[in-house]
Give the backbone structure.
Amino acid sequence: DIPLTQSPSTLSASVGDRVTITCRASQSISNWLAWYQQKPGKAPKLLIYKASNLESGVSSRFSGSGSETEFTLTINSLQPDDFATYYCQHYNSYPWTFGQGTKVEIK
Amino acid sequence: QVQLQESGPGLVKPSETLTLTCTVSGGSITRYVWNWIRQSPGKGLEWIGYIYHRETINYNFDFRSRVTISADTSRNQFSLKLTSVTAADTAIYYCARSPRDQQEWAYFFDFWGRGTLVTVSS
């Protein structure tokens, strides 16, 4: 397994803030990383794939960067709809694994 | 637009077999990769395994001795069987698609079902 560690676990922010979430892999995963947003009672929603590619239909306020072992998800100008939990997932080698999640809360 | 819907019993007794079905609409399961993923408070999101082009199957080795994924192309469904369940298998189970046929090594999940809660209890 390649564990993924997200930080922080919880993030308090205000509408309009720029927020950054980090995902670290225990070994290199190249750029085979995706980011998801999940709201309570819903399935995760794909935001970013291959580290920095924005999924069709996702707001350009979301962006991803990084490679090898360190990755970031940035949300510019946080909107009320963005308060949710965010997960990273690698697909470099079996088994695919997810980070433990980062909850973005209203400050 | 691809849609996925999980179905199956919401309650399974310990030591029995959990069986879930995912019905896909808006696309054929003969293309793309079809996954099972679960989510529990204790272990978070866990990828269980996938089936690809009906015959290529990969499982998370954490589940390998207990899991079977199969496909019924006539019904456009794929299924999950998990044997010898315990309380630790209580989770929301999702089916999801990976767009492997569209992109190289595209093993992320672009379409998800709504999930179904399975509780293991006597």
About this structure: DSSP finds no helices and eleven strands in chain B. The mean pLDDT of chain B is 95. Chain B touches chain A through 21 residues (CB under 8 Å). The radius of gyration of chain B is 14 Å.
